[in-house]
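Sharing a chain and its predicted structure for anyone who wants a worked example. Both blocks are below, sequence first, tokens second.
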Amino acid sequence: MPLIKNLFLSLLVIVFCFLLTSIVDQNSVTYGSVSLFLLCTITIFLFQWIVFIPSYLLSTEHFFDLTGSITFVTVSLVAFFINDTKSLRHFIVLILIVVWALRLGVFLFLRVRKAGSDSRFITIKKDFSVFLLTWNLQGLWVLFTLFGALTILTSVNNTSIAFIDIIGILIWIVGFIIEIISDKQKSVFKNKKENKGRFIQIGLWKYSRHPNYFGEILVWIGLAIIGIPVYTGFGWLGLISPFFVFVMLNYISGVRLLEKQADERWDLDNDYQLYKSKTPVLFPYKLIKD
């Protein structure tokens, strides 16, 4: 039965996340008898379940992306303020996460509000088990994306800022700027009536078919690099964050789905085929070569 299958998958996601947390929380400070990393994992999933209930009852997806962003901010604040061994590195990581999450959350929330609905949820939001699984998968997404940052924020290792931290911060800044500019360029392009039914190939989109996702990957590479001075033992699993983001964006959600939609829409358009043949999918390596 689909119901049993989806509920089992939800349970599997939750168990997997908590098992992984138990592996790395040996480097975490404790809050009472619970590791701070484990407390953060609990917070992540509690947020999803709390907002899922009214969202399902109202059959709305309007708070899905916003909840994800708020979870990023909340769990980072929890980790920062509970950790008594915090350092300048902890503060920098907190600020970078909050800035990124608030910007993305507001952007996605306003986009859904303007569109009226999110096509991904047309059938999903009406099925309890599938909708619940979707919220649990968002919990997994938040945890794995934040894995490196949470390893830093909950760590007992308190070291001074090093040169590698500066490199990580600079990479984060470059990625964040690319993400903002590319999103803005696409919004401006789509809001012009003369561009209705056309694909964007100007600005940063001239060098990458998905520059916003490229910027996103750089953001999490930068954050993962900042943690190198404090990673020890299984704490090195914090490096999975940028790899997870890359796999998610390139093979599961963003790029794969958008490329499929674009091919279906403009497959017979010669300009699109030319653009596709000369423009990299993600990494703008031609810009570097030029």
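Comments welcome. The beta strands are 30-31, 34-35.
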